[in-house]
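Board notes, transcribed. Complex of a protein with 0RA.
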Amino acid sequence: MADNENKTNYGADNIQALEGLEAVRKRPGMYIGSTDLKGLHHLVVEVLDNSIDEHLAGHCSKIELIIHADNTLTVKDDGRGIPTGMHQKLQKSALEVVMTVLHAGGKFDKDTYKVSGGLHGVGVSCVNALSTYLRAEVHRDGQIVEQTYSQGKPTSEVTAIGKSDKTGTIITFKPDDGIFETTEFKYDTLASRLKELSFLNAGLELTILDERHVDEDGKPRFERFFSEGGLSEMVTYIDANRTPLTEKPIYVKGRDEESNVEVEVAMQYNTSFSENVFSFVNNISTKEGGTHVSGFKRAVTRVFKAYGDENNFFKKLNFTVSGEDFSEGLTAVVSVKVPEPQFKGQTKGELGNSEVLGVVSRNVGETLKFYLEENPQEAKRIIDKVIIAATARHAARKAREMVQRKNVLTGSGLPGKLSDCSSRNPFDSEIFLVEGDSAGGTAKQGRDRGFQAILPLRGKILNVEKAMEHKIYENEEIKNMFTALGVSIEEKEGEKVLNIEKLRYHKIVIMCDADVDGSHITTLILTFFFRFMRPLIENDHVYIATPPLYLIKKGNNSVYCWTEDERKDAVKGLAKGGSTDSVKIQRYKGLGEMNADQLWETTMDPDTRILKKVTIDDAMEADRVFSMLMGDEVPPRRAFIEENAKYANVDV
Ligand code: 0RA
């Protein structure tokens, strides 16, 4: 037990018993958030978190994840193993208690775990309750012990099945298809979580094996994630397609004795204009930030401002620099470990613990101050960048105010190009952002004007990844989007926030040609939404229309097709076994090649169209993709587009 700080010998009796598992099956949403794809993956996260806790306690160096051919999943770790001794009060093996009693993960026992994982923190017993089959295998005290379950109930005794000189836990489970909408795991979702975990836990090895996808040599898809550099390496990875201002990220690590809060930060400035702060509490991403992010920003502003003032760098400015000037072109990862985290906000993605703010601010402040003193050249480069940001912000505010003032001056303020719908109820109103005036005209004729509005956008909209902020607010197409949508950027406590209270349409549909240019324009519009109107994506308001690729005709019969397979089937179907010569194939390249009726039928009619919802599963990957697609470096962009050319748009 030498490496266990708390010197508590974790035995079977430390595990507290609480509730039964029926509650979990009755109301799964209450425990794992939802029963959709997200809920399904939450099961994996829940098991993984237990293994990560073993790593944080200093007992686990490797975690293996296996997706089996039938979507059964295995998580294997080399931690201490779930205790298997007799639980005195319950007269059962501790293993059975951990697996079958809610909240019996030991996590609620503060002496045992330095940090508790899991956003919901419900433990493996929930996973067990929601699985038709689960098997736990524990290597501990020289033995291998197993037990199996179904829907949370044991289907065997806790049985010793052999000897082992190792320790660890292997959990294999099959999610209940009577509970989940889908039970098919997504490789990318799981792999990117493992990648993230490898950065957050330097030195921990994580692997994923997908037995569903076997290559030509019969080998299943496999990846290994391991980071020696941790958060600094993560920042370098995120900024792979940006130009850094300094040679290496600035790294901060500290711990507060009193609160037992641990702080780890890596940060680096680059030549771009966007701010990218990713934050985590106990390895869980906090999308809405919280006290740890506030503490970080406070320290950055305070230290840089004091340094600039002391050295008279800001003398020539006739206005004061503000907090946001210090975060332009800043990429940072803020990771804290908090013994009893409190999560707030609608999606519980914001840290609430007030003690964390001071701890982060103090630790980051000290390291930064030291860094600036030690590295005057880098410091000067960063301050110069801050001065440019402040000057640009000044210009941008004026431009933004112009856009917003103009609204008030011109009555309704709606752009002249907008063909609005008659409904004034945002809940059932839709707006189509259409590439080009001509397609805009067709869409205008084809739409249901009751609830569908059309805003044509001229050609390629501004690339916001490269442009200065004030240029963005001066851009005609972007101004039109702000005013048509009814959203505005406001400043609250020095931070820009998007006000979507007056959003005029709850569905915003990007409709572009199904060719390379069209997907480029879609990407430009998405980049704009991602950087300037992200809450619209986060609240499920943004969609992509999918016009068909082909119209297959024979005589009076015709079929629309969206894929190559559909095209082949349609040609065969219409030929009815006869010659295919009389079957006409029309390839649609542009929306303009369809008439108004066809466009309505295939792409706009809610009963028949296919809309793709734009989501941000993984903000880090989305940021990398956008900075790559729209940034300075050409080679990675070309490689990406060549690789993904078939799949018209970027999956975010
Ligand atoms: C309860 C107590 C201890 C560890 C675990 C549960 C545990 C659970 C899982 C789930 C997957 N892998 C796991 N590894 C460990 C503490 C054990 C001790 O103090 O020896």
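DSSP finds 19 helices and 28 strands in the chain. Residues 78 and 153 are 26 Å apart (CA to CA).
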